[in-house]
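> @MW can you paste both from yesterday?
MW: sure, first one:
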Amino acid sequence: MPAHFLEAKVVILGSQSVGKTSLVIRYVQKTFSPNCPSTIGASFMATKLVVDGYKIRLQIWDTAGQDRFRPMAPMYYRGATAAILVYDITSSKSFAEIDSWIKELRRTTSDDIVLQIVGNKRDLDHLREVYAEDADAYGKKQLGVDHMLYEVSAKDDEDVDEMFTHVTRKILEKAQEIERRKRNNPNGTVQLDADHDKTQMNNRACCTG
């Protein structure tokens, strides 16, 4: 890992209409559109930030939530440094489907991938079907006691930046851990970023998802 620089691939996963694209657009472009069409396959955005003195470039892959695109998901999460698993707090079904994503990622990706559960549409609290305490307990059970649930609102820009910063910090911590393992095992091979695994796509995001 170059001194004080890291490039990371982040994939956004979850059911259709949970607001994955709105979340990415809010974070990268600082805007919100209430009429985003469904993503076809996946779209890509990149952004740079500084966390704990490190310059970090995030390659953010926003994937389609429709069932017919589910078989394509491995194409996009392969080589990911982190996966953000998004559900809609007004949809218990979308939350239940997080479980299948966790199982799939554990079966098919590196043990070093950072997993983060996020509840979107906090602005619709009056329609809530998924309670934060239940989602938090689930996250801690599945991903460890240090997992921190985030409930955000892409519409109202609530805690979106904070969530992405938290995920980026976890990515940085994992990269540093891998670097330590690499130093302790010089004959092993360790991949610190996902730049080698960029999918050849020109479907760069506008308002798709």
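MW: second:
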Amino acid sequence: MIPRLVMSLLLLLPLLGCLYILAGAVAVGRYARRRPHPAAAFPSITLLKPLHGAEPGLYENLASFCAQDYPGPVQLVFGVTDVRDPAVLVVERLRHAFPLKELTLVIDPRRHGSNPKMSNLANMAEVIRHDTVILSDSDMRVGPDYLRRVAGELQRPGTGGVTCLYHGVAAAGVWSRLSALAIDTHFLPGVVTGLGCGLAQPCFGSTIALGRGTFDAIGGAEAFADQLADDHAMGAAVRAQGLGVAVPSFTIGHLCSEASLGALWAHELRWARTIKSIDPAGHAGSIITHAFPLALVAAALGGGLPALALAGLAVVGRVALCLRLERAYGLPRHPYWLIPARDLLSFAVFVTSYLGHGVNWRGHLYRLVPDGTLMTDRRPPSR
């Protein structure tokens, strides 16, 4: 028999979770209505795209950055570490499709630390030609006004960097749809709620836009070559310069291409352990965001109808949040019937994040130490 006080606490957690979902729906609508900062000038831009393999949708992702309606000079730099990387052929396709664009390919195997992406970026940085530097992951997809919007935000007074919120774009299959749901119903509203409360200071690999002087002042990409949470560390370094990191109200697309449960699990576990390493208190507090599985736990332990009612309320709230998000950002409809499974999977990832420190990143095994540093680990990561 569960003591009454314990059962009350078990019911309180999903109740708070339902209120959190409601707060997220309100925050998303408000944040999406924020007015952008128009660009007063159009500085020259170097856009850095580190590549690794011909991942699904890569050509379309990169092409969206080439097809920008931007009046200033733009240099697009792509980087790989091996001349045999299939991404090289994708860049060649881009050169044929966009012959008037300045496309530079850097092939350089040098390693500057344990983070392969930042090593790649450090090599690419040697060919930067312009005043503004934008780092963006290869799985992002943008609209033609992306550079105009980012340039405008970077001109806000006191701003040293710009990062972008992102929504999920499912490539194909149930696993990619579950991945997109995680972004749109957990990650995105969580960040926006944190921004609204003044608790979040995000910086994402989706976009990190910096003036060249700021990029050099924080040590360039090489200074973060041992960090798993390299984007977060770069944002912290910009703020340490006394400058802000702007987060505009629009979102860009993150292509979710997971083709199996194993790929989805490895990606989300790496993500969860990264967050745990940089914000352990916030990660622990995020337990209240798992209202549906917490209500099921309470029901299994004797919570009865109140627990089942909270479970139903949590699912309805998550669907309402999803609808709000779709309307605010003009996104296509999600498969709402996957929401209960999505919530259960998110809770399983949350619990497992505390059962080890290993991460699997692009087939390489690493161990994450408490300060967020990546250490090469030959052993299979803890799952």
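> thanks! The chain is about 50% helix and 15% strand.
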